[in-house]
Amino acid sequence: RQLDALTTLMNHGADANTKDNQYYTPLHLAALSGKEWKDLVAALLRTKRKGLKVNERNTVGRTPLHEACYSGYTETVLLLLNHTGIGVNIVDNNGDTPLHLAVIKQHYDVVTLMLSKVSVKLNSKNHKKMTPLLEAVSEAHLGIIKKLISRGAGINVVDNDGNNCLHLAVKKKSFHSEEEYIPILDELLFTHNIKSLYTLIPNNEGLLALKLTLDLQPNPQPDTPTLHLAELVISLNGLLFVDIYNFQLAPVLPIIILLTSKHHQINQTVRVSSRLPQGFDLSQQPKII
User: Fold this and answer.
1) 90 lies in a domain?
2) Which residue would you say has higher pLDDT here, 280 or 182?
C-alpha cells in the first residue's frame, strides 16, 4: 500500500527531497523504518525524477545510510551502497561515519557490507578520536574486531584520552570474565603480532596498560583474564620483577608474586635478586587468596 501511494505521489510531482521539522527526508524515514520498508527505499532510489538527494543530513547530521547502519537493516544498507553517489564516509554531528554507527550498535552483517566498499575509511576518527576499531574493542565484539583488523584497521591509534586498544579493553573491562578466556586479547596480539599494544606507554590520564590490568583485582585461578593479560604484558616486554617494582605501582607486586607462584615464566627472573631494593624479601611478601 505504501509503495502504491509513493508511486502515485511521485507520478504527480511530489518532491522526494521534502523534509520534516527534524530534516528527515522520505529516504531517511524509509531507511530507518524496518525491512518491510526496503521496497520503498528501492522505489525512491530508482525514481526517474531527477534531483533525488541521497546524502541529505537530518538535524543530528545523519544521512539515510547512517540511519540504516544504526538500525541494522542489512538489505536497506545494501540498496543504498549500490546506489551511485552514496556517501559512505560522511560524518554526523558527533563525527561518526555510518561504519562507526554499525560498529557501536554491533551489527556484524552491516559492518561486513560497509567493509566491502573499498572507499570506506577504516581509520576515520569521530569527535572523541575513536576509530571503528576502538569502538569495536570498547563494545567487546570479537567478530567485528577480527573483521576490521583483517581489512587493515590501524591498531596503534589512540582516542582523546590517549587510550589505545589495550587501554580501552582493560579500562572498560570489556573482556573481564572469570569464566572465559580472553579471545579479544589473543586476537589483537597473536593474529597480527601486535606487540606494540603491550608496551607500557601511559595514556593521557597517566594510566599504564599493566596497572589498568591489575586494578581489576585478579584472583589466583589460572587462565583468568587479568592474569593472562598481565603475563602477556610482562613476558612480551621482557620486564624484570625489579623493573616493575621500581615503577612504584602498588598493584603490581601481588600479580608478580602470583605469576611466580603459578610457575609462569617471567624473563630473566634468575637475575632479579641482585637488583631488588635493599632489605626486600620476595619470599616474605603477602600472597593473594
Assistant:
1) yes
2) 182
